[in-house]
């Protein structure tokens, strides 16, 4: 059991068949990047099952050569990609969240990624292509590491609270860090909350904002008003992205 599923991102122009991995194309149509009648950069998602996580370092295209470009892992060559095999010219993987990896399959050249070769043109007959992906999901919780900072420069009162159900997480108040392992069975609940309070007798002219510098987390917020409708507090509930 791989303990993950692979799905395809269906574009508005796609006419799918029995599954999302089958599409109807018009003869002599050229593959183009960024959408179009024949999508030249098809996107798949590897998504971990509940209780598991996926790491891009654990996945590969068999026999292909890896070139890293920042957060993108570019696979070219080998027995399943150009020039040995067509129509797939190259594959780019990227870690979306600890639970998901995107896999972009190129049927047209991408100069940015160094993916070369002839763009795919739909022939008169059906085309069936197999793309093997090696990899496995890991049992257990994805790690969490975050630093919460007040950069407003204003005399607000802040409070950080870790969800007591997340027994694997700890909060270092002196450093402002939350670290540990997230319980994947509780991903529907916040892992922590961050509350910003106006000083006594004061109010916020505009709602406080929280900037999250990574795709690993999302926040949902609520505000508290005084009897006159003034905003005096805002709480950000922070969730692990899935």
Describe the protein in words.
The structure is a single chain. With 242 residues, this protein is mainly beta. The protein has two domains: 4-139, no CATH class; 143-240, no CATH class. Helices cover 0% and strands 36% of the residues. It contains no helices and 15 strands. A six-stranded antiparallel beta sheet has the order 1-2-7-6-5-4, with no helix packed on it. Strands 10-13-15-14 form a four-stranded antiparallel beta sheet, with no helix packed on it. Strands 9-12-11 form a three-stranded antiparallel beta sheet, with no helix packed on it. β4 and β5 form a beta hairpin. It is elongated.
Entry keywords:
242 residues, mainly beta, 2 domains, 6-stranded antiparallel β-sheet, 4-stranded antiparallel β-sheet, 15 strands, 36% strand, elongated
List the helices and strands and how they pair.
Blueprint: E1 4-8, E2 41-48, E3 52-53, E4 65-69, E5 72-76, E6 90-97, E7 100-106, E8 138-139, E9 143-147, E10 157-162, E11 169-172, E12 177-181, E13 192-197, E14 217-225, E15 231-240
Antiparallel strand pairs: 1-2, 2-7, 3-8, 4-5, 5-6, 6-7, 9-12, 10-13, 11-12, 13-15, 14-15
Helix content: under 10%
Distance between the termini: 21 Å
Strand order of the largest sheet: 1-2-7-6-5-4
Quickly count the helices: 0
Assembly form of the protein: single chain
Number of E-state strands: 15
Beta fraction: 35-45%
Order of helices and strands: EEEEEEEEEEEEEEE
Mean pLDDT: 89
Major beta sheet summary: 6 strands, antiparallel
Please tell me what the overall shape is. Answer: elongated
Runs with pLDDT <50, length 5+? none
Structural class: mainly beta
How many domain regions? 2
Radius of gyration: 23 Å
């Amino acid at each position: 059991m791989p303990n993950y599923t692979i799905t395809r991102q269906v574009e508005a122009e796609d006419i799918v068949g029995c599954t999302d991995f089958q599409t109807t194309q018009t003869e002599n149509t050229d593959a183009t990047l960024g959408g179009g009648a024949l999508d030249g950069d098809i996107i798949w998602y590897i998504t971990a099952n509940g209780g598991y996580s996926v790491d891009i370092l654990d996945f590969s295209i068999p026999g292909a050569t890896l070139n890293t470009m920042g957060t993108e892992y570019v696979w070219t060559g080998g027995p399943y990609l150009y020039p040995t095999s067509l129509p797939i010219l190259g594959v780019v993987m990227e870690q979306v969240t600890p639970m998901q990896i995107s896999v972009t399959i190129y049927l047209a050249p991408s100069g940015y990624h160094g993916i070369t070769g002839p763009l795919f043109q739909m022939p008169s007959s059906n085309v069936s292509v197999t793309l093997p992906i090696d990899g496995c999901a890991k049992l257990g919780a994805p790690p969490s590491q975050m630093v919460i900072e007040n950069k407003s420069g204003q005399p607000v009162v802040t409070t950080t609270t870790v969800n007591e159900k997340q027994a694997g997480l700890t909060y270092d108040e002196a450093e402002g860090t939350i670290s540990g392992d997230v319980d994947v069975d509780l991903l529907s609940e916040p892992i922590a909350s961050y509350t910003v309070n106006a000083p006594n007798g004061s109010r916020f002219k505009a709602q406080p904002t929280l900037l999250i510098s990574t795709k690993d987390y999302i926040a949902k917020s609520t505000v508290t008003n005084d009897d006159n409708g003034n905003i005096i507090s805002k709480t950000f509930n922070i969730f692990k992205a899935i």
